[in-house]
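Field: sequence (string)
Field: structure_tokens (string)

Example rows 1 and 2, in order.
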Amino acid sequence: MTKSETKPSALFSEVKELIISAKNRAVVAVNAELTLLYWQVGKRIATEILAGERAEYGRQIIDNLAGKLTNDFGQGWGAKQLRHCVRFAEVFPDEKIVYAVRRQLSWTHLRLIIYMDNQLKRDFYLQMASQEHWSTRVLAERIDSQLFERTAISRKPEKTIQLELAKLEKDGHLSENMVLKDPYLLNFLDLNDSFMEKDLEDAIIRDLQNFLLELGCGFTFIARQFRVTVDDDDYYIDLLFYNRKLKRLVALDLKIGRFKAEYKGQMELYLRWLAKHEQEENELPPIGIILCAGRKQEQVELLEMGKSGIHVAEYLTVLPPKEVLERRLHQAIENARKKQLPEPSSEEGDS
């Protein structure tokens, strides 16, 4: 290829990139303005509705306004859209929040979030979707899989959840409680009813991409059957990962049966060996995840696994009906919060 032929090709690539970049910026800018507009419209309608004393009055206002706006601006301003706007303004009354997220999340993202019945859950998905740049499809999948209820943070007192979400919003810091889950949903592995630990491990390696997605933010696979040698004895960590968000090595042990107390000592050995031989200067101490088919909660609590940096969780290879999983998770959250120590004060959270 001659020099004269190369120049037009390079010129085309550069100009093409400029056009694509400008279009992307324009899309972000338009989305940001529309999101703010929808909030302002919702706020104005909500203020007008509050002036009336009957629910029927609110319905009349929205229906009448929708008819007039549709005549002038087309189908995008029907009664359903106006109700979305009102709901948006009701659940996010502070305009500062809208300004903060309008360039990061689309209107479709926000519509998925605003109808959640729990403010902490809304804030969780709002921050996670913003920080992790989730697409609307990914956000919908996370909501459908009960991610908030399965994440360790949901078992904490409300004040703790608020403090950790505020820290995530302020500096992008993601804590262990925001990453670790229980249970883990492994139905994508398509395992038979009867399987061994090696079958489970093999299935995970075959579908490592989906397993990493289920593990959550920041996980990178390092090795399987990672050898640990202590006094000429060899031990093997089933799966070893690194989490760039937590800046820690993560050892994962797979068990096909219920959790047993002796698993704690085994994982503690792995973690101390990793801390001594594999941990880098800028990293935090390794943590461990023991995945079991079941566990007895009081046994796990008495062993104080968290103090050793060990997270015990169940995995499900077959999903129960959605309503059954919801009841189970809500019961687990309620039981965990009943056992919590008094919530930290704001002074403790600021220290």
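Row 2 begins here:
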Amino acid sequence: MVKEKVLDLANKISRTKRGARDEIKPEYPEYKILEPVITEEMAEVALCLELRKPQSAEEISKLCGKSVEKTSELLWEIAMAGVAFVNKIDGVDKYWHDIWVPGHMEMMVNNKENVRKFPQIAEAFDAYGKRKGPAAAGIFPVGAGPMRVIPIEQSIQAETRRASYEEVSKYLNENTIFSVSDCSCRTSREAMGEGCGHLKEDMCIQMGHAAEYYIRTGRGREITKDEAFEIIKRAEENGLMHSIPNTDGPGKTHAICNCCGCGCFSMRIANMFVNPDMVRSNYVSKVDKDKCVACGECVENCPSNALRLGQKLCEIKPTKEKKRELPSDTEWGPDKWNPDYRINKKVVTDSGSSPCKAECPAHIGIQGYIKLASQGKYREALELIKNENPFPAVCGRVCPRYCESACTRGDIDDPVAIDDIKKFIAEQDLNDNHRYIPRIKHDYDKKIAVIGAGPAGLSCAFYLATEGYKVTVFEKEKVPGGMLTLGIPAFRLEKNVVNSEIEVLKELGVEFVMSTEVGKDISLDDLRKKDYKAFYVAVGAQGGRKLGIEGENSENVITGVEFLKDVNLGNETALKGNVIVIGGGNVAIDVARTASRVGGETVNMYCLESRNEMPALEEEIEEALEEKIMINNSWGPKKIITENGKVTGVEFKKCISVFDENHKFSPKFDENNLITVKADYVLISVGQSIEWGNLLSGTSAELNPNRTIKADNITFQTGENDIFTGGDAFTGPKFAIDAIAMGKEGAISIHRYVQKGQSLTFGRTIRSYVSLDKNNINLESYDRLPRQKAYSSHETKNVFEDTRGTLNEEQIKKETERCLGCGATVVDEFMCVGCGVCTTKCKFDAISLVKKYDNASLDLKDLKPAVMKQAIKRKLKITVKKPIKAIKSVLFSSENDV
């Protein structure tokens, strides 16, 4: 049943009346937000309040006909509910109404108890913006909306035309009383289960009358001015922007909000309704393309998706920019909106951008760290790398170098030695007495269990720890590192390098529990009882795979994975005589090269694939050949020959083809073309298996036919809600960098999962980077420059040390000069709201805020005339455009197109 007086109150606050064309109806959010907490009796009193005109209980009691005592009691209840401000003025409590937003809706949502009891309060706040947003298209003068972006102060320090009202410090320095509260927008999102991962706590600062109200009603806690400045600083470090209530008059406000583009209802006006003029500051971003290195930091932190990576090389056929329609002169309906803005953020322009960043699974800002290395800023370069990859020293040695394969420089001469540059940068840190330890951003009192200490698990642990979680890594082996430690020989990746990278995790507070198999020694339920809130399962593919042929269970027939593990653990692995390695991948190469180091007198590899089809990297094949490993292509094992249970040889059959016309694995053999090869040992390296044991027993997590675990491709959540996954357990055997990239995404999902009301997808950047079109690039003007090569010892066959050298500093200077600098950030000035977040993320002074407008805030009483004037202008522009469009459509229609 409708509460009539409450409905009257909703109309009064809305400055309309029952029966009017724009009246508030019971189904509107303005009524729904009041309905659960405002009684008819409270509404009677509240109807006597005036907009921004403080009145005492004594004054109001005369208007409502109730006693002063009863009026005082009801007024306090109204204020507690958030439907009136209260301040002590001249020693007397005085009450008044404000506008809905920014005003009563935020105040009501900040009553935590009421929102818990009545989620419709949060839902009504959300619905209000969706109801009012469409009507605001193009009718507010620039920066005159009820909320306004105010730039991060350091971003406008170089702007000589800046005004004091554009500086955060002005508002803090002019006030003496401060409070901090939860963000009301994020509180609303959280209550609806639609949080974006940016949490609500201690976000919004109130000042003056608003601070007094928030402190007295328990919505916020009192803070000092220094604490307010610290909150602002921390918000900026974490990539947040600032907005202020904008109707207090020029140079005045009563709050500073620390906002994100994916949660803020004010920013929704820009992002969903594509109406940024209503909320923008006086500034827009400008990019210096000569300085920009397309690292992507500004792009991924931009709250309005105004920044995207493009390219800055000379195009043969320039990409045409589409002309943008504007709400200020165009009819603006749902066809112009972006309702999915929280899940469809774009990171590149249609032209594409740097191939190195696009092709790297972790999408590291490669062009960026190359530039920093060229300037000798190795610590900053390392920090940029570790934003996406915690283990650059490892990857500098075992990365497949997708980036180099894609490098545009390779179309001129040789690709930039990206991996060698990264290795050099990481080496500076390994040799430093003061290692780079990332800042821990928060302090979350929640425990997370990572199961498996390989690259995916370690990466996930690293990013969860830097976010502020208590992380414990459980590993069934006695050493951490997974395949980095147990599956890769020391001559490719020395174990002190892995251990050094792991030490950083320990510095971050990550705990390691070794020789403990989850599912055997302890169960997931046991860990849940120990208050672990989520699990990242990254057990890798550490088991060998058999061939399914006669004789493979004989003595001295070993899987390659098992063999490498024994060698790396220092177990007895001495070989002798003839060793046959079956397989043609990278692991098979490692197995063969290791076998030659532990006593194998002759080592022969046999694989199904031809030389050109071998899955092993070309570099690794060449290294094997240099060490006199014999590679025999296009042969498949038919059976293993034994005598008294011990291997004596292998019979092979000729492989005619490995793949069918659809490039599916479908080998065909010539059964009449057989050979027999003597063998004292056979090492089978034809793939790896995932050993689950009882880890997933009793859970809803499911496995695919190939024994990988089923999970969402974006969130990595499995069928058991608190279990997330990544690495080889999810994809099957891949490279360390693939697992590292998934580890970070897993950490993002776990953070969202364990925090109340957060969505796993809303506000999440899908990092769909795309390479530029090399066929459309003119490279004729570039000189050829030789690629720098690190010195390597030629004596490699009998040693387990990594004899590959590292570029020296002089070579680094020369090699970094070879980078073409393919990419640069592109600004959509219309969508840029001038917040300045981008400038705080740029290490290259490549992006700045430039003053484009000169509009101060308006007082509430001056807002309506300004909006009406703007609306009339807009209507005229739309009217003028219509006949022009009609004429163009006739002139250029297909029938009349000459």
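free_text_note (row 2): The longest strand covers residues 646-659.
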